[in-house]
Amino acid sequence: MLLFVSGTLSLTAGCTINSQASQNSVQIDGSSTVYPITQLAVTKFNTGELSHVSMTVRQAGTEAGFKSFCAGETAINDASRPILLREIDACKQNNVRYVELPIAFDALTVVVNAKNQWANDITTAELKKLWDPAAEGKIKTWNQIRAGWPNQPIHLYGPDKNSGTIDYFALALGLPEHGIRSDYIGDADARVLARKVGDDPAALGYFGYGAYRTNTNHLKPLAIDSGKGAVLPSVETVNNTRYQPFSRPLLLYVNIQSAQVNPNVKAFVEYYLGHTEELVKEADYFPLPEGAYHMNSVHFYDAKAGTVFAGAPQPGMTIPQLLRKQAIF
């Protein structure tokens, strides 16, 4: 059993220490959606007396990040969707125990170029029709999505294959995991995608709300209609649960052993948890209620291992539902 003793994490006999945790450096990888929040945390943490701490933050994508994390190669994985069953199994095989820490909510945002004069909203059925693998090479123009839209080419943009955003987007539309067409322009960096869509009048793309906020002058978000009327992403519509099914939690996964044997990992996570709300707001995402951040600190202090998501993204989950899951975990 893993325990905190006198306010510090300690290992019991029989536990192994992974290779990266034995060093004083802090290795972080994972979601490009969560990256701006974590990068802010690193920048603010690694100043003054802590400027000597070696910290590496990459954004290989949620899926690629979990591969490294579950192999014991990184201390922290940023994730835009919950850990999946196969990743849970990989962590178990490598004796990697982790604490799951929800840090924010995101509004997965479907956007077009600001010069687009016809599209202001889109239904989830239309998005499914457009992004279904069966549409590959076939649905190429706007009027094939909705009658009345012009017979002009549509250029699709989205995250690359290692992104957890793909999994969430596909499942939210009723498609299989990774089950979207492949003939689109992809990039691992959501902010790069935001610039590309902003440069292409024929574009339609999707990525996190924070990336949209980096290029609002050149992008137009589409209101999403899942059967109850078209709703734009905003703080209000995420908090009142109206922006569905594209509201989603953003998470950190922390290797428990790394936090136990590497004081810099422990200190960084404690800093992150103590400043999450301000970091999330600065990165243009939606903070959780204060009670959620207190619960994160308790779970980290208690080395509460595991996940509340049963190994699968759960599209449509609201903030209250997430808090209830945390409370009974």
From TrEMBL:
One of its GO terms (molecular function) is phosphate ion binding. One of its GO terms (biological process) is phosphate ion transport. Involved in the system for phosphate transport across the cytoplasmic membrane. Residues 20-273 form the PBP domain. It comes from the Bacteria. Keywords: Phosphate transport, Signal, Transport. InterPro entries: PBP_domain, Phos-bd, Phosphate_ABC_transporter. This is Phosphate-binding protein. Belongs to the PstS family. Pfam families: PBP_like_2 (PF12849).
